[in-house]
């Protein structure tokens, strides 16, 4: 399959860098070293991609590229870790089944599509180039406690698309679709682009980052004075293959949509994602400095076989794939 990138290409000047690449699945389990470091198991299930040094603590003082021996990403120098919650289907009888993901990787299982975007308009606004993340950098986006649309509007950069076919990019919504989606549901996560220039992390894993003070959340507009350093826009897409659950006879009798995140949210408002930087040396900075779109000639890449070979055995031994009476961790779906 091939998902089009026309939206980003239309918005992106030729003088910018736009990386788009695939990452296969590393592991699916209840670990969250950013929000719940050291907790085994963490509160809910995540799907993780990237470097195989992923673990329950992820000490920021350690060299991520040096700790990893392989990566599930096609960018061979990217040992970062990217993770999201997992989507489950709730059947009419109250049992749950994990929703698989569509993969663009031949022979791959699950995974995500990652973007790093550097826009020349940043330079126009502040006369400074985009600065790559630093070793030890990490961030989080979203609100796991969000229960209303007003809550979700604080993070309008996290959206869903009900895909009619492989090329569907719009419209986007803040809530999970309440109708069947022939090709599945795409979850889009767009991280902030403005850094305070000092802290590699913060207590809530968000305060050290900000979106531009004006303009769209994709780009444009200057960074606020509190967060003056322009960073790449990290975006990832996850396509959940909900097509396997489109039989309305199996949906709740009240007509509500049947999908819930692994921590129970069935509205979609509590969507969230985590990022731990792990590019080797100055590889990312060089790519951000290179005028290229999608296929950057200086990027070191690896093939599907190497990506798929990089996997990790789950340290949390539990059933996450069968028909379950509750979500792993004992959660139940909730709508408000």
From TrEMBL:
Q: Output this protein's name.
A: DUF1996 domain-containing protein
Q: Which UniProt keywords apply?
A: Signal
Q: Which domain of life is it from?
A: Eukaryota
Pfam families associated with the record? DUF1996 (PF09362)
Q: Which InterPro entries match?
A: DUF1996
Which positions carry the signal peptide feature in this UniProt record?
Answer: 1-17
Which ranges carry the DUF1996 domain? 32-279
